[in-house]
Structures are given as C-alpha cells and as structure tokens.
Amino acid sequence: xxxxxxxxxxxxxxxxxxxxxxxxxxxxxxxxxxxxxxxxxxxxxxxxxxxxxxxxxxxxxxxxxxxxxxxxxxxxxxxxxxxxxxxxxxxxxxxxxxxxxxxxxxxxxxxxxxxxxxxxxxxxxxxxxxxxxxxxxxxxxxxxxxxxxxxxxxxxxxxxxxxxxxxxxxxxxxxxxxxxxxxxxxxxxxxxxxxxxxxxxxxxxxxxxxxxxxxxxxxxxxxxxxxxxxxxxxxxxxxxxxxxxxxxxxxxxxxxxxxxxxxxxxxxxxxxxxxxxxxxxxxxxxxxxxxxxxxxxxxxxxxxxxxxxxxxxxxxxxxxxxxxxxxxxxxxxxxxxxxxxxxxxxxxxxxxxxxxxxxxxxxxxxxxxxxxxxxxxxxxxxxxxxxxxxxxxxxxxxxxxxxxxxxxxxxxxxxxxxxxxxxxxxxxxxxxxxxxxxxxxxxxx
Length: 445
Known about the structure:
- By secondary structure, the chain is mainly alpha-helical.
- The protein is built from 14 helices and 6 strands.
- The protein has helices spanning 14-31, 48-71, 93-113, 122-150, 154-170, 175-178, 201-239, 247-269, 272-285, 299-305, 344-351, 371-374, 377-397, 405-444; strands at 188-189, 192-193, 287-290, 309-310, 322-325, 328-333.
- A hairpin with a 2-residue loop joins strand 1 (188-189) and strand 2.
- Helix 2 packs antiparallel against helix 8 and helix 5 packs antiparallel against helix 7 (201-239).
- The longest helix is centred in the last third of the chain and has 40 residues, at 405-444.
- The radius of gyration is 27 Å and the shape is elongated.
- Residues 1-20, 23-30 and 353-372 have low confidence and may be disordered.
C-alpha cells in the first residue's frame, strides 16, 4: 500500500484541493528560496558500448587466465610433445561456448541497439530485444544440455545457480539480462536521469521516486554483475574433476575477479554526474525531524510548535519550520523541504540508507550516512580507498616466494584492469570534492 500524503483535515473536494494548491504554492514561493546548483564540469564519460566492451574483455580475460591456472602445461620443457600453454583438448567445448555467450551478450545487444536509437523505431527495438534475447537463451540452454549429458547431475545445480539468483533479483524481466543500464519512466539523456529544478513540491517528490527506483535498479545490476563474473571463473573449477590444480590459488582468482568486477561496475553505473543528480535532488527534498520524539526538544518548544500549521503536500517549506501531520510535530531540516513527514522512503533517500534498503537492506554500515548524498565525495573516497587496498594486496602477493608463473599472470591481469577503476574513482573524488566545497561556500556564506 502506498504512503498517504493527505494532510490532517484535508477535504476530498477537488475545488478545495485546488484552492489549497494555489495558496500553498503562493505562500511557498514568497517565503522560500530554492537552492542554486553549481554547473557540473564537463569531463569524459564512458559510453554504454565502451563500458560493455571493457567489462566483456575483463571477464573474458579472467576466464582465460583461470583456464591457464587449471589446464596449464610445461610447454617450455623439451620432453613435452605439446607446445601449447593450455591443454585445450581437456576443456569442454560447450563450456567455452557457454562462457563466450554470457560474456558477449550485452556488448552485442548494445551494438545492435546503437543503429536504432530513434523512438520512432520502437517496434524494431522490441523485435531486436525479444529476437536476440530468445537466441541467447536457446543457445545457453543447448550448451547446458550438452554439459549435463557429459557430467553428473550436480552440474544442474551449478548451472541453475545464476538463473535462480537472476529471478530473485529481477523476476521475469528480459531487459536487465541484456543491458546493464536501461531507462525507467522519466527524463533521461544518454541513459542518465536528469534533475529538473522546479518549485512544485509534487514534481520534486515524483522525481525522487524515479531516482530511488533507478538507484535500486543500478544496485541490483551491480550485485548481479559481480556474482556472474565470479561464477564464470568458478564454473571451470567445478567441472575440472579429473585435473589436479592449486585450489587455493584458483579461489583467490575468483575473489579478486569479483572485487575487480565490483569496482568496474561501480564506476560505470555510478559516475560522478549521476551522484550529482542525486545530490541536487536531495537538496530539494530535505527531511523532517519528529519533535515529540526528540529528547533534546525543550517543553516550551513543543508548546509553541503545537500551534503550528498543518502540513500541505503542495507547500515548499524553509529551514526549521514546524508543521503538524498525522498527530505528530515535525521540524524541517535542510535549505528547503518538500518530503512527506514520516515517509520512510523519503527518509531513506535523504539519509542515504536507501542504498540497497529495498534490496536485502545491505550497506547499513555507514555511520555518517546523512552526508552521503549531501556530499557524494564520501562515496568515491571510500571506494577509492578500498580499491587502493585491494591493489596493494594484489601487488604484495606477487612477492611470495612460492608463486608460480601462471598465478603471476592471473594477479597481474586483474591488478592492471583494476587500475582503470581506481583512476576513475580518484578522478571523480577530486571533481566532487572541489565542486561541493565551492557549492557549500556559495550556499551558506
């Protein structure tokens, strides 16, 4: 059931509601100054097809390196007849086809859609979507059937794992399987939501709903992409039953590939300009603090606040204004406030616990989450620090005395590709740091 935004004592009459809307808009425009935003600097962004190409190359390279870890040969020794680095004949060909299809599906689909961007060709795009999606699913089912015929019944569990996870996250939607970034109903330019500065409280709340759903959608894609990339380098280990290999090193490769996929997906799904859109929307949303539950509120303040006006869904409130709503008292917090008092989704968005709250309630470890969208620099500084720590661990592991050449290749490959994500995170951190420092000075000085 949706949250009821009707204020206390509001009439169901359309005429009276229209009068309240006009009166609230007029009062709000006289008393409140809307926040002004500093233009976001122009910088190079990664297009969808390029991000899909990089992710495809990363996952394909990681799978190839894992095959080298498992099926390597001593090809440099003179007594060996083979001169190949890998025993290719021991690798199931349908496993190679399965990994190839899963790796390239999004890049190929992106290339097909690049020729039909116009909205007038909607039927053509739908035909490509369901036609290409059907071909990919049939090919995957055929490879899975061939693999099942050559292995034990446990393979059904291995192959069904990503399918089950996908249905849990996305349901029966086809678009998330073929694209990492896809648009929801709203204003989008180049697959990015656009913030519209408006004085209308209802339009701001509608925009917040669009951004909230878009953020959750991107977070689900982030989790699924990390899981699928780790799965594609894990499944060769599960099928290598007759081969002896270093299990710990292979597991280490799966872990660092999952972390590398997380970093790459994060910089592609949440660029600095996207966080700036959330930041601007947060400045317009504001939040409410319930006074009758505030232990720091003095009794005299509560007595004065008891005579406050009733909250109206059409009014834009300024800082520290007190309203009544559903029998409770609320004080506005923020330069302007249009949020619905007591609305949990607005509270989560403002204090940034909306990150994954609608998806298994992850990432609740932020102690100062109120500053996350007010200052998105926290996002990029945290991610850049974690990425730097992962890179240092990977480089330090190369100094082990007993490390073999194929593990040096494995760690070096992931570390090299992770530097792309590290560079983008540091760049976004520096941009947002100087941008919001200047914005804070212009607003509060």
